[in-house]
Amino acid sequence: MWALFMVRNVKKQRPVNLDLQTIRFPITAIASILHRVSGVITFVAVGILLWLLGTSLSSPEGFLTAASIMDSFFVKFIMWGILTALAYHVVVGIRHLMMDFGYLDETLEAGKRSAKISFVITVVLSLLARSPRMVSNASALGRNGVHDFILVRATAIVLTLYIIYMVGFFATTGEISWEVWTGFFASGFTKVFTLLALVSILIHAWIGMWQVLTDYVKPLALRLVLQLAIVVALVAYVLYGFVVVWGV
To answer: Which terminus, N or C, of the chain has the lesser number of Cβ atoms within 10 Å?
Structure first.
């Protein structure tokens, strides 16, 4: 009853500033917006990366095909963009985790400082990812906000560990051949870890995309259509990823 009373008495005509030239986002807002943008880019990139992985693991010829695709300057540039978006999403995600656990103060000054540090770290990682070796080898519906909060943090930790695992493989391996590549993914541990990382990134993406649609897509019908499309894409990612990884 109290909620209904508040809804009925909320001010209907709120001031709206539509002059974009007068809007100045603080650096913390820019960091938050870019975090969502990088999440959307990463979600779309999952399909591209799964296809490349499936092609490279299919046969020696498929491995050479994937390698030749990766030799293209345009593809390298796209991969660099994907790695940059992923790096930024992970860095800012770690920033949020540190705030959650009390290692960073939740004040305006601390937020500005940590946002600037996140930008600097992302630039450094982006420049490292630009190296040829790295690029070539590389609607509520009963939802629970607490569950989403926990799942986002847990899946972020799993993804961070998997990235460290893959970076370790690339760093400790010389020239990657078909035998080395398939042998790595033929390991039971790598298979399970890869599938766990895939499920984690899809859960992370689902929650993030749901929040983006809820915040920015106001027509309910359009939002439901987009959510359905995302569900179809997630199911396709899971099925294709399982076939690719477990079939090695």
So the answer is: N
Domain that holds residue 219: 28-133+143-246
Name 56's Cβ contacts closer than 8 Å, sequence gap at least 6: 62, 63, 66, 67, 181
Residue 1 lies in a domain: no
Alpha-carbon distances, residue 174 vs 124, 181, 223 (angstroms): 23, 11, 47
Pair of tokens at residue 44: 């779309």
Q: Pull the structure tokens for residue 162.
A: 């998997």
| Joined tokens for residue 177 | 């051949």
Secondary structure class of 177 (helix, strand, coil):
coil
Question: pLDDT tens for residues 169-223?
Answer: 988 988 888 899 999 999 999 999 999 999 998 888 888 888 888 888 888 888 8
Cα–Cα dist 50/244, whole Å: 8
- 15 found inside a domain: no
Q: How far apart are CA 57 and CA 51, in angstroms?
A: 10
Residue 18 lies in a domain: no
Tell me how many domains the chain contains.
Answer: 1
Q: How far apart are the C-alpha atoms of 209 and 153, rounded to whole Å?
A: 15
Q: Is residue 205 part of a domain?
A: yes
Burial 41-61 (b: 16+ CB within 10 A, else e): bbbebbeebbebbbbbbbeee
Q: Are 239 and 177 in contact (CB under 8 A)?
A: no
d(CA 112, CA 109): 5
Q: What is the domain-level CATH number for residue 32?
A: 1.20.1300.10
